[in-house]
Design brief:
It is built from five helices and no strands. Helix 1 crosses helix 2, helix 2 runs parallel beside helix 4 and helix 3 crosses helix 4. With about 140 residues, it is mainly alpha-helical.
């Protein structure tokens, strides 16, 4: 008889059952990788973060309370990891771009008033700039 994901997770949390953990990894590793790749757009990062999500699953299985499906709970762990990773990567990119732009350009930008956040033109321009920056970073 095959146990449900929820039952396997409870076994991992309560008994640190390696076999139950292995079954969860086998069942969800492909989907986890595809989800991470869809968020990150990088195969190596997707592999690393999907593995990290399984490590977190093993560490936090006892906190799974069964109020949601196991897959929902696990995918939330994975998505949070990916989003945290992207935020860190974007922060690094902003710092790098600021250094490359030089102090003179920074002075010019600081003197200009910031566009209002609700301005659709400014949002599109920022999005286009970030797209170009990510493409340039990808080429590095």
């Amino acid at each position: 008889m095959e146990l449900s994901d929820e039952a396997l997770c409870q076994r991992v949390g309560a008994q640190r059952d390696d076999d139950a953990f292995e079954q969860l990894v086998e069942r969800h590793q492909r989907r986890a990788y595809r989800l991470a790749w869809s968020i990150l757009g990088d195969a190596d990062e997707a592999k690393d973060l999907s593995q990290e999500a399984f490590l977190r699953l093993f560490e936090r299985a006892s906190s799974f309370d069964g109020r949601s499906k196991f897959s929902t709970w696990f995918h939330r762990i994975l998505v949070n990891l990916c989003l945290d990773h992207r935020r860190g990567r974007q922060s690094w990119l902003r710092r790098w771009l600021a250094r490359e732009a030089g102090a003179a350009r920074d002075d010019v930008l600081e003197r200009q008033p910031a566009p209002p956040e609700d301005d659709p033109t400014a949002r599109v321009a920022r999005k286009q700039l970030m797209t170009k920056a990510w493409q340039a970073l990808g080429r590095l």
